[in-house]
Design a protein that fits this description.
Length: 448
């Protein structure tokens, strides 16, 4: 069906975003490979779209609405500047208080391991309290846990200021259900973009971005408005309690063939772009009897991807879709696959962590954007840097070697199994100490 491009860039971007989520690539247009046009959007629902560009300069100015938002927020900042300064002067040295917002479930284990004699922890939850297991754990992990979901932005900022927070950590960024208006009000003297958003937030009221030297190398710092706050090993935390005890499920239980190589990618469907999918189809063609195991997000995505496989000359039945299951069962079933194939330029983050925790080797293609480098950061932290590639050709060649040389893949799997118990990636006690050191360092620097 022919399509006409709307005059409104934001509307066109929304159409492209819907097309990408449904895997209707012919709607995306000829410039989709570069990210130009296909990633310009407005509103916080566009966060995945911004991360789908391969250009590090692109997220800094993702839409025409951002300058307006920034101007409004600067006005808020100017009105509250005096209060922020007086607050900084009033903060005592013994109140070096990191705080966070909604996405605590990505990092619960390390929050639980924070040394309370070094840091006093406050959590402000933007999600209504429904007493789910994650919220129960979060309430136990923090000395002070407050449901602020029904409060106004100004009210939340006032509460944070009243709590005399020294370091305020934003674990949302420009994502769904975020309350980004809090941070321009400067309720804390130090404010950090941390974990939840895969890129710079492009705003003067964020002092630091919580990262590591692989995710944001020094030569790319110029694309970030925040100052990098480097963790020594990796910035992306783990929660090892997600992996249930006992043996992993069998292939038959997972709906997989008993024999044949299983390529896997459990990334969200909007991360799968045609250039990488074409590589996956060539791998299926080159490895007889192999299958590609994907996450079943909708009937429409399933139908469209199978249609693309058929157009590539691949039997659609070789695409197997895994149903949604509870977190523990999902992490455990990764072990039934042979190799995790990362997407690009929006790569695996928690999904790569799931695979590595389950003992499944991951290969990734690291570009210049933060969103494309987080899986590589995790591979470095677990001692498998050889599985990081920097081009599509290298990525495809490595995947093919691992699929056709069983001894090579077995060697990586054994190293992964051994390193899981000794490397920094899953050592959340070490991560907590590194986090504490980082918070105390920036607070001491602020007071100097």
């Amino acid at each position: 069906m022919p399509t006409a491009r709307p005059r409104c860039n934001a509307r066109w971007s929304s159409i492209r975003g819907i097309a990408t989520r449904c895997r209707c690539w012919r709607t995306r247009g000829s410039n989709a490979a570069t990210g130009a046009g296909s990633t310009i959007s407005s509103g916080r629902s566009s966060a995945p779209s911004r991360a789908r560009t391969s250009r590090p300069s692109f997220p800094a100015c993702p839409s025409r609405r951002w300058p307006c938002r920034c101007r409004r927020s600067r006005n808020c900042t100017r009105r509250s500047a005096g209060r922020a300064r007086s607050h900084a002067e009033l903060c005592r040295r013994d109140r070096r208080l990191p705080s966070l917002r909604e996405k605590v479930h990505l990092s619960l284990e390390f929050w639980e391991k924070i040394d309370r004699s070094r840091l006093e922890m406050f959590a402000y939850s933007l999600r209504p309290d429904d007493d789910n297991p994650f919220q129960r754990r979060a309430k136990a992990a923090f000395e002070h846990y407050t449901d602020v979901s029904q409060e106004s932005v100004a009210g939340i900022a006032k509460r944070i200021r009243r709590d005399r927070i020294a370091v305020l950590v934003d674990c949302n960024g420009y994502t769904l259900n975020a309350r980004e208006g809090i941070f321009p009000l400067r309720p804390a003297p130090i404010q950090i973009n941390c974990i939840g958003f895969p890129g710079t937030l492009g705003a003067e009221w964020y002092d630091y971005i919580f990262t590591d030297r692989f995710s944001v190398p020094e030569h790319l710092q110029r694309f970030y408005t925040e100052r990098p706050l480097y963790m020594p090993h990796m910035a992306f935390p783990s929660d090892t309690t997600r992996l249930p005890p006992g043996p992993p499920p069998t292939r038959a239980t997972c709906g997989l063939p008993e024999s044949g190589f299983v390529f896997c990618c459990f990334n969200s469907s909007y991360k799968i772009l045609p250039e990488v999918f074409a590589i996956w189809m060539r791998l299926l063609a080159a490895v007889p009897g192999s299958v590609l195991w994907l996450l079943d997000t909708s009937a429409e995505v399933r139908s469209n991807l199978r249609g693309e496989a058929k157009r590539a000359g691949i039997d659609p039945a070789r695409l197997i879709f895994a149903p949604m299951v509870p977190v523990g069962a999902h992490v455990a079933r990764n072990a039934a696959a042979d190799l995790f194939l990362d997407s690009y330029p929006y790569g695996a983050h928690a999904t790569a962590n799931d695979a590595l925790l389950a003992g499944l080797p991951v290969i990734t293609c690291a570009g210049e954007t933060l969103a494309s480098r987080i899986a590589g950061s995790q591979l470095n932290a677990i001692g498998l840097p050889e599985l990081i590639t920097t081009s599509f050709a290298e990525y495809e060649a490595l995947a093919l070697r691992l699929a056709t040389e069983p001894g090579l893949l077995d060697g990586y799997r054994e190293r992964l199994r051994a390193n899981r118990h000794t490397s920094p990636l899953f050592d959340m006690a070490r991560y907590a100490r590194d986090f504490e050191d980082a918070m105390l360092h920036i607070w001491a620097e602020h007071q100097a």
